[in-house]
Amino acid sequence: MKQVLLAFICALAFLPVTNAQEDDLLSLLGEEETTDYANAAFKTNRVINLHSLENTAAGVFDFKISHRFGFISGGVQELFGLDASTIRIGGDYGITNRLMVGFGRSSYEKTYDVFGKYKLLRQSSGKKNMPITAAVFASAAIKTIPFSDPERDNYFSSRLYYTWQLILGRKFSEGFSLQVSPTLVHRNLTATVAEKNDVYAVAGAGRIKLSKRVALNAEYIYVLPDQIASRYRNSLSLGFDIETGGHVFQLHFTNSTSMIEKGFVTETSGNWLDGDIHFGFNVSRVFTFKNFEHE
Length: 295
Description:
By secondary structure, the protein is mostly beta strands. The chain is 11% helix and 46% strand. It has helices at 2-28, 261-266; strands at residues 35-37, 60-71, 85-94, 99-106, 111-121, 124-126, 133-143, 160-173, 176-187, 198-209, 214-223, 235-244, 247-254, 278-288. It has a twelve-stranded antiparallel barrel. A two-stranded antiparallel sheet has the order 1-6. Residues 1-23 have low confidence and may be disordered.
């Protein structure tokens, strides 16, 4: 019995040395455990209207053109919406792999917008295990069309709108990703006193990869009750991402006219059941100015 006990104690004493030797051997063989970060949960930094989990990479400028035709319900006379158009032209830039900024100008209400997005957490496995990606997003927009009532006291601040989002999501597999985005839109001026200046909403979005270069995207934005005018509806969008070397084409159908948060969250008027659907697209072209190694 004493011999067995002695052998057991010797084995315990020898175990750390053995583990250390194995770690040293793995290090010599270049097999140290590494952290693998999930990437391409979505093909671009937009799902359709919503910002996605993804950021523009550090040192990369992403030039975007977004376009919405008129409502399909316009029929033959309006060529099913193709006679009308709403556009946004903008650019996004990655300051680091975690931080990006952007700007744009929309024909809808002649609005200018700026934004920033920062990744708090990145989904990863291996040495560092993190089950989700988390990002914070903030934007400001200014509407430049003339005031609807020039006789009243109109202030510059009445043209301003702000949005804050927390984006939480996960890439479950190579072909499937989901995200949810609690959202707050602040409007300094509302059309009626019954509408709220602060509008709370919850947005959800998903992506299913259909082939190496094609994916199906969907997003829905639920606005909590009694905050916006009754004529407005929740935003629903469906679309396809098509990647063609250096470009990503996003073709989609949506009941939202605006392409910035203050519009598609609080001012979506289209009813899918009535055919009030825009056909539209986003075109993305990236330009790499400098490669950064830091995060």
